[in-house]
Amino acid sequence: MIVEADGGSRGNPGPAGYGAVVFDADTGDVLAERSEGLGATTNNVAEYRGLIAGLTAAGELGADTVAVRMDSKLVIEQMAGRWQVKHPSMQPLNAQAKQLVAGFAEVTYEWIPRERNKHADRLANEAMDEQAGISRPAAKPTAPAAWTGAQGTPTRFLLLRHGQTPLTVERRYSGRGEISLSELGEQQAAAAAERLAKVSDIAAVVASPLTRTVQTGRAVADAVGVELTTHDGLIETDFGAWEGLTFREAAERDPELHGRWLGDTSVAPPGGESFDAVHRRVRRGRDDLIAKYGGGTIVVVSHVTPIKSLLRMALDAGPSLLYRLHLDTASLSIAEFYPDGNASVRLFNDTSHLG
Question: Hey, what domains does the chain have and what are their CATH numbers?
Answer without folding.
Answer: 2-133 (3.30.420.10), 155-354 (3.40.50.1240)
